[in-house]
Design brief:
Blueprint: E1 7-13, H1 17-34, E2 39-45, H2 52-57, E3 65-69, H3 76-86, E4 91-94, E5 100-101, H4 105-113, E6 121-129, E7 144-148, H5 151-158, E8 168-171, H6 189-200, E9 203-215, H7 224-242, H8 246-269, H9 280-288, H10 292-303, H11 306-319
Parallel strand pairs: 1-2, 1-4, 2-3, 6-9
Antiparallel strand pairs: 4-8, 5-9, 6-8, 7-9
Helix pairs in contact: 1-4, 5-8, 6-7, 7-9, 8-10, 8-11, 9-10
């Protein structure tokens, strides 16, 4: 890492040239408009066999962009870790290859990251969009909050969005205190290092303005209850083992049981998500059977009439 680069935007990608093209177009435009010369964009191509290289060539004029192609596919988790290791910036932003920024996103982010006191994590809120909808450009960004020593409050605010790579910009110096090679390759390595970095740092920030756009329903080749049930619990258990953080992980679990699991189970049952949800009750029961919240909220979502469940989600979104 050098002090010359403030922000490294690292994009792990594999065979998603169409989405990468749109994403790179938005990022390059935003970096140019910012006028910043301390931002870099890295593309970590995990041995794609589509037109990814040709897409990147369209943006070769930009000196802040670097393309790295793996000789073979090393897996998504290892590609994320490689992205971190190759980033030179003070802050690392692992960016989803199908997400977008707005024209003034980089300018606004740089103003936050320029703060004399370093943040551990800057957590971002997203404007969601689909192939059928277009995100609306934001004209003004001003709503963010600094969490100084309030680690539990920060975790409660960010919660499961700590699993979403584009929602979190991390201070790279904190990775020197975390051995990335010991983190399990279970699709949730980012949750481990995001919580760990929040524990290791006294100051975080949350940007409530929706300064980037996240494409929805574009990843479905996994089993929800395996990744966000078994694997997520394994990740939280590893954090508890390596850090004095049970109070943090219990906050996380409580929110999972009250809202995250019920909402996603209901969405999947109504065909609103492409992910699978095999052996849901069995997987979650083994982990949460001693938690009353599991029986009150999560199990209820498995049998409540589907349409009524959707109304329940809307109510919970307004009250939780």
């Amino acid at each position: 890492m050098t002090n010359e680069i403030l922000l490294s935007i690292a994009i792990p990608t594999y065979n998603r040239a169409k989405f990468l093209d749109i994403s790179l177009n938005s990022l390059c435009k935003s970096v140019r408009k910012s006028g910043r010369n301390d931002v870099e964009i890295l593309i970590l191509d995990n041995a794609s066999t589509d037109e990814t290289r040709d897409v990147v060539k369209k943006y070769a004029e930009h000196k802040f962009l670097k393309y790295i192609k793996n000789d073979e596919n090393i897996g998504a988790d290892n590609n994320f870790k490689k992205a971190i290791s190759l980033s030179r910036g003070k802050y690392v932003w692992i960016f989803g290859d199908d997400d977008l920024v707005f024209d003034d996103t980089i300018l606004y982010l740089a103003q936050i990251l320029d703060a004399p006191t370093a943040f551990g994590i800057v957590h971002l809120k997203a404007q969601n969009f689909t192939d059928e909808t277009s995100p609306a450009e934001f004209q003004e960004f001003k709503n963010f909050k600094i969490y100084d020593g309030a680690k539990a409050e920060f975790i409660q605010e960010a919660h499961t969005n700590l699993t979403f790579i584009t929602s979190n910009i991390v201070n790279k110096s904190l990775f020197d205190k975390i051995d990335l090679n010991t983190i399990a390759n279970n699709n949730l390595g980012q949750l481990y290092w995001n919580i760990a970095c929040a524990i290791l740092s006294d100051k975080q920030a949350v940007v409530f303005d929706k300064i980037y756009a996240a494409r929805q329903f574009n990843s479905g080749n996994y089993n929800f209850s395996e990744v966000f049930g078994i694997n997520l619990n394994d990740t939280l258990s590893s954090i508890e083992k390596n850090y004095d953080a049970k109070f943090i992980t219990e906050i996380f679990r409580k929110r999972l049981l009250i809202y995250y699991y019920p909402a996603n189970i209901i969405r999947i049952r109504n065909g609103l998500s492409a992910v699978r949800n095999e052996n849901c009750f069995r997987s979650l029961y083994e982990i949460y059977k001693k938690y009353p919240l599991f029986w009150i909220f999560t199990v209820s979502a498995m049998w409540i009439p589907k349409k009524l469940g959707l109304l329940m989600i809307k109510f919970m979104q307004k009250t939780i």
